[in-house]
Amino acid sequence: MELLEERIRRDGVVDGQVLKVNSFLNHQMDIGLFNEMGREFYRLFGGERVTKLLTIEASGIGIACIAAQYFRVPVVFAKKNRTSNLSDNLLTTLVPSFTHGTTYQVVVDRAFLSPTDRVLLIDDFLANGAALEGLWQLVRQAGGTVVGAGVAIEKAFQPGGQRLRQAGLRVEALARISAMEGGSIQFVR
Ligand code: 5GP
Questions:
Q1: CATH number for the 2-187 domain, one of 3.40.50.2020, 3.30.450.20, 3.65.10.10, 3.40.50.720?
Q2: How many angstroms from the chain centroid is the CA of residue 139?
Q3: Pocket test for ligand 1, best of 98, 126, 135, 158 (most atoms within 8 A of CB)
Q4: Regions of the chain short of the pLDDT cut 50
Q5: pTM confidence score
Q6: What share of the chain is helix, strand, coil (3-state, %, to 5)?
């Protein structure tokens, strides 16, 4: 997606293997841009009879909420902390965090994912694929179907995208970065 690539080129900050996009995605959010991303996810997955969007807190939530206005379905976000206001009937899995170097438990209340659900996974970044794999796992536990994953930015030089596609998941990334050495960002062509 040209608009997103341009924005990454203009405002993205490379910090080793991490791309910082705090000025439009991970801290301050450009809702006009999110709207175009949501429209594009709908163009790609609108024919899949999606019943829910599933993302993981925190940065996927904004993107998923805007996309949901196109799909007209609810957004469920996996929580990283088991809070006391959740039921005991939880779907859970462990996800190693790319940016924090820790592993955390993520949970979704069983009430919000069911065997009849056709779920589109949404996230901001795809790196090693652990976050999407965790979400996929939660839907499998619920007996539902994952129709695919929509991510804003895939770092295609990291193994997650290839691994997930080989495992049979349809992964669509709106911007695919092939390299970001020396601070210069290259996109997959
Ligand atoms: P994965 O689980 O695919 O290794 O990493 C995906 C998760 O890690 C995303 O949910 C995102 O929050 C975070 N992440 C991975 N790489 C980057 C990056 O380069 N920049 C930012 N801002 N977040 C990243």
A1: 3.40.50.2020
A2: 14
A3: 98
A4: none
A5: 0.97
A6: 35, 30, 30
